[in-house]
Amino acid sequence: MGLSDNSVALWDLTSSAVVARVTSSERCLLYSMRMWGNSLKVLRVASGTIFNEIIVWKLIPESPPSSPAILMEHPCRNTSSCAITQIDGRNYVAFHLNRLIGHEGSIFRMAWSSDGTKLMSVSDDRSARIWISAGQEQEFDNFKEFSSDLILFGHNARIWDCYMSHSVVITAGEDCTCRAWGMNGNLLMIFKEHIGRGIWRCLYDPDSSLLVSAGFDSTIKVYQLYSSSSMETREQGGLIDDLKDQREIFEICAPKLTKQLGLMDSKSEYVRCIRFTRENILFVATNNGYLYHAELSNPGNVKWTELIQVSEAQIICIDILSRNFSEFSLDAEEIVAIGDGNGKVTVVSLTNGDHAPKVSLSFSWSAEMERQLLGVHWCRSLGSSYIFTSDPRGMLKLWKINKDSLQSNSQNTTRGPSAFLLAVFASSFRHRIICIDALSKEEILICGDKRGNITLFPLSEELMVANHEDVMKNITSLDHFKGAHGISSVTSIYIARSYFNHVEIQTTGADGCICYFKYDKIHHKVEFLGMKQVKEISMIQSVFSSSNSEDMVLGNYAVGFTSVDFIMWDLTNETKTIKIPCGGWRRPYSFHFGAVPEHQNCFAYLKDHIIHVHRLWVVAGEKLFPKVLHMQYHGREIHSLCFISLGLISKISKGCHSWIATGCEDGSVRLARYSPTEMGGWSESILLGEHVGGSAVRSICFIPKIYTFGSQIHNTSNGCAYHTSANSNEDQLLLLSVGSKQVLTSWVLRNSTAENRDSKYLSDPSKFQFSSVSFQWLSTHMPQKFANSRRKVAKPIKLSEEGSCSEKTSTESDQISRLMSSECRKDKHDCTFVDQIDNDWRYLAVTAFLLKHVNSRFTVCFIVVACSDATVMLRALLLPYRLWFDVALLVPTKSPILSLQHIVVTDSAQIGNAYFLISGSTDGSITFWDLTEAVGFFMHQVLDVQPQMFIDCQRRPQTGRGSQGGRRWRSLANLSSEKRSRNSEGINNVTNLNDCENGFETSSTSENDQTIYPLGIKLNLASELHEIQPLHVLNSVHQSGINCLHVSKMECRGPKSERAYCVISGGDDQSLHLLGFSLQVELTDQGCERSKPTCRNHIEDATCYHPSGSSFVRECSDCTADKDNKLDILFQNRISSAHSSAVKGAWTDGTWAFSTGLDQRIRCWKIDDSCGIRECASVIVSVPEPEALDAIICDSERNRYQIAVAGRGMQMVEFIASSVEDSSNL
After folding, report:
1. pLDDT digits (tens, 9 = 90+) for 712-731
2. DSSP assignment of 236-291, as one string?
């Protein structure tokens, strides 16, 4: 072991003790040291000193077998000043071999060659030097001097690490580049995949040709240098040739175009379409109706074959069905459908010939009028018997090809139509259809048009089996979604998953987004699920997966274009893998990818009538690794984490995966997978998305269950209620994240019980389990942005007592209308100005629960967020309409709240629910709130008002580049009064928002986002909220801020244990506090008439405004806690010095408790029958500055737990409770 004082210590591993220590005569501090040799006899040490020198020395016996001449020849080799150490009965000293001078900066890293004849060093001076010895030196007498024969320059910053093999040299530096050099000093390759402050380490394995780098961005990335599998016979110069010849770039020209490369006229021939079918097969169609087949195996000798000429008409569009989808002939390689300018469709079937492909059959028919045929589409799921054609007016025709025509072996293009029209699908948008997909089993056809709309049509089995004698049918749409991609084209569409009662759809568009939709097969409705914006791609052409991907449906690669470049983007790693300048997407182009897209990809585009081909196609017998195989986690501090618990206790106990969601300072939310059976445990990390503007994520929470409102509730073993109706498959479980700039983002869980279209999952269910947990962005709530930097706020006034009484006697609609109307108040009050600049309020904590109303399709997610301005807000997200509402304000809060937890109490009689909130604040107090009345009133109000009838909910969030979506402020009371006024006027049919623009105004919230508000809310955006007073307050529980708290149901311990709970909290005072309480709840039937919010008899300062971030809230009513709901404190226990530093995370299930703090320790506590708490085990974790902790039960007996700790990194710890007392271990 080399030490920093330029000494070497020898350890006996059997006894774990130091046997000897040899110190060099050069007593100085070292920046680096590297040793070579497998025994003391050949051991050599290279020491990089603080004087920018390298000292090479070795261990020799006290009387070395060397001549005095050699010693005199090297005066620096003085052994008299060296400490003599005895090893195995012999005395050893440090003997200096050479002093290497040349670097002008600190030497950070060194590397020996495998034979010890070369030494490489990297330095602060941005250079790398290779020191070469004249010969191999095994004995001291044969020593040869080192000389600096090679200096490598190229890095733009300090070089941190290096590696040297017999044929390649690797360097990694602070400029985030990893460079491969030849032994002659030539730069071979540059890898720049890391971001941040540099690459710390690099490793290279010559046997597998894998280069691994680890950087400041907390990523590990893998690159494959070789493209050949023959590693054993590779010579030293083979790597250089191989790296240069990986990608082929060449140009080709169609046969009849070679003589027309000059000026062209209207009769000149030019290329209209190009299509790849394989890496060496390219089809080329021209304006004169020629279809060519190009064989590209040898770029220097391209073999062209003229297949057919389509009646001298201009070819408009082509589509090719490859042999993998061919059903009618085993000999057919490709089936080409051609659409020309005369409106005819020609189908050509090709087979392999001896030297060139042959046309086995071809036939054509008239599908449209002249110049009206714009697209021909094969549907892979329907096979070769059906083909679609599209025109400019949004009409889509389905043609069925006769089986006799498909089985014909003679070429006859004049024998008449060989296909007949089955149906015509008419889009209500009347825009050209760009892409289609169909699923005959589900009997649906989905189309995307040029203006970003998608339309669904029925595709019945009766229609598919019809013959030419049946009458053609006109099919109307089942449903449509306007503006799925704004006004940009839908470039691809795919039916991703099929469920029992709905189908999930994935689309890509020219707006740079991937959108996800759900089609309800029962109600025949299309709903927006979520979206993902892809960095650096302005138009996404398609999404696909590699053959070894675990999620074939979602895809892990997106291909598309920027303004001038073709891009392939790795969706898993969020990196760019291919960038080819091509001039944009408006030119004819084609691409094709293999099993591993980074190593197998082809792209061709047309420029100046010449086809430019970029091809990288590595064929290897061994497994090909993607260029970037990194397990990326967060690059900065993780502030919050939570387990994604989906009832996986039985699966976890069997060694299945655990999923953990994390939120980071860099604004990203990631989903990590922990596999106990795999090396290292962490096997995957998926980036879900980033908060708007990269705002830091401070807290996250997952909602694992849905409660019912107004119907029966089923209880689980731990007393929690969930909804088990027939439509439970439609339930959407959410992940919520909050953080800086008051950003609240919701993510929806993808259902893990889908019937995937890919049979691969049916044959191997384990692979489907790997990809079953995934989230999609759903909606984002943000403070309103104003056009100017100042906002008018009404000054507070006082209402007279008579005014309050008269308000109570008014009708409900008038009362709500007066309370909620902002426009009518603006002229009655003087105005003051409040600055909106430098608003740096942030959300500190969040908790939420889901309620599903059984008498309606909607589900409400109630979210409680605590802001740094000492306000706590109860908000609601109405699903599936993605509408945000402010429900209530929790007052008073004297100090900011750092942690939140909620409790949903259910009754054994299944009458209803009660909802409570627990908060811990910076002053060390714990507060209990009763949310039951406010939640119940809002649920009834939503059911009564039905805001989705007044708002166009079938709308994708209007997002621009770099934004995760807008939001809509809505006032249920305003909508309620408007609904009543409409009904009083006899208006029964309410149109959507687009049809009643006179009642709404728009306010620009950002450059690319506009939110539509009801009339009268535009100038004062704050909704009028109920106030909720605390149910119970415990002051000075901690001496300082409460960083964490967790609540759990307690085991049966007394007469009040039916609704007994315990809360564990930790704070900056290094203490843990265990609190037990019981709730006495009088549950009422949720289906009965709602109770109105109570108004105080004496309202003092009724219009007082309280700040809530960037908005202001009016105190209009007081939703006090139900007097029938009471809280009793059962016990309180405190451990003053639970940790030696601030406690940052705590968790309990009522039996065991776990905590962590800045002392980097996890401590396990046992809650005994007398409600006492004692420490049972502890462990030191490797995560610096832990900030969050969460745990999950791994077995039903509560004897095994998984504990996750996060801070500057993340670590998983397993806890096993032994049957022997006090023998539990971590």
Report:
1. 433 333 333 333 333 444 56
2. TTHHHHHHHTSSEEEEE--GGGTT--S---TTS--EEEEEEEETTEEEEEETTSEE
1160 near 1083, Cβ under 8 Å? Answer: no
Contact 666/218 with Cβ under 8 angstroms?
no
Residue 98 pLDDT: 85
3-class DSSP state of 679: coil
Range ranked top by mean pLDDT from 235-249, 569-583, 756-770, 948-962: 569-583
pLDDT one-digit tens code per residue, 990-1007: 333 233 333 333 333 333
Domains of the chain, each with CATH number or no CATH:
1-64+82-101 (no CATH), 145-226 (2.40.10.360), 692-711+732-750+840-896+927-946+1025-1031 (no CATH)
| Rounded Cα–Cα distance for residues 817 and 825 (Å) | 12
Cα(395)–Cα(398) distance, integer angstroms = 10
The DSSP-derived string for 1021-1077 is: -PPPEEEE-EEEEETTSSSS-EEEEEEEEPP--STTGGGEEEEEEEETTS-EEEEEE
Please tell me the distance from the alpha carbon of residue 9 to that of residue 3, in angstroms, as a whole number.
7
Q: Does residue 1075 or residue 247 have the better pLDDT?
A: 1075
Output phi, psi for 538, to 5 deg: -85, -25
Beta bridge partners of 914: 905
Instruction: Tell me which amino acid residue 846 is.
Output: V
- Cβ-based neighbour number of residue 4 at 10 Å: 12
Phi, psi of 134 (to 5 degrees): -70, -20
Q: Rounded to an integer, what distance in angstroms lies between the CA atom of residue 606 and that of residue 566?
A: 13
Q: Strand, coil or helix: what is 403?
A: helix
Q: How far apart are CA 737 and CA 125, in angstroms?
A: 44
CA angle 422, 425, 431 (to 5 degrees): 140
pTM for this one?
Answer: 0.72
Q: Got the DSSP string for 987-1022?
A: ------GGG-GGGEEEEE-SSS-EEEEETT-SS--P
Collapse the DSSP code of 621 into the 3-class scheme (helix H, G, I; strand E, B; otherwise coil) and give the result.
coil
- Helix H or strand E encompassing 944: helix 932-945
